[in-house]
Amino acid sequence: MTTTQSPDSSTRFPEAAILADEHVPAVHIWRDFDARVEQVVRAHTDADLFAQWIGPDSLTTTIDEWSCRTNGAYRYVSRRGEEEYAFRGTFPFVGEDKIVQTFTWEGMPEAVALETLTFEDLGDGRTRLHGFSICDSFEARDQMLASGMEVGIHEGYAKLDRMLGAGDL
Amino acid sequence: MTTTQSPDSSTRFPEAAILADEHVPAVHIWRDFDARVEQVVRAHTDADLFAQWIGPDSLTTTIDEWSCRTNGAYRYVSRRGEEEYAFRGTFPFVGEDKIVQTFTWEGMPEAVALETLTFEDLGDGRTRLHGFSICDSFEARDQMLASGMEVGIHEGYAKLDRMLGAGDL
Fold first, then answer.
1. Which of A165, B41, B82, B90 is deepest in the core (most CB within 10 A)?
2. Does B131 touch chain A (CB under 8 A)?
3. By the 8 A CB rule, do B11 and B120 touch?
């Protein structure tokens, strides 16, 4: 499935839908959460909360730079035993229901994706997150899709579901 | 002319070539300078030098945030009488011959372009600058192209030529 259309509100995303855009070198991610917009936004802007859910179950994440405001930046390291993966980026825009950030895996320090996260109030206490990540080329986008990113996305959002269910936000 | 091919070294760009990419929502800018790579890079990384050449002749630029390093950010304001245009962005990557930065006009604070500047040694004391600016959509790219950006690009680089000729870098 490939689409650039926004799904209508009758579509549900209890699991993340990860889709390649057909016109531009971007990936779309849609995911619904059983929580208010401000709770889901807080899970993305608060360093301590973010570190608890980001990434696959098998990795533990430590934040070592976090300035989640317009023109701020971040860096975090995810570890599993001896393995270590460092990620960094900047925040060109942080608003109440939108975050624009860059994303780089430090193993490829010059490869930068530009991500726009939009948090939509579905009107019944649920929130739809739309992630749009654009790369410099279709090759870079396809490499990102082939990287195994979906494991971290699905397991990460499932952790966030559990935190929301437990009243941790 | 529309291309995604890198020009060969026999092509000369004494004036900037500004081209729409045919595959992705990006703009290419090529411009040659009669100076070494480190001089042209310094003109982009040093706040005082940058403020002297950026933008059209009719505007005066003041830098009010400048941290030109990986994960840093910038903000500057260009003025002509009562008119004021503020621009800001972040630096996801700053290397010796490559800078990746974001670019936003504060009048449209959520519109972020991702720019990659590459400085190539042409081997005869000249440097080729390639700018690649990708937007979220072809509409946003075409709007950028229609914004009158070329005046500031041509006049700005002509100022930089004069600074380089005067031995100011």
1. B90
2. no
3. no
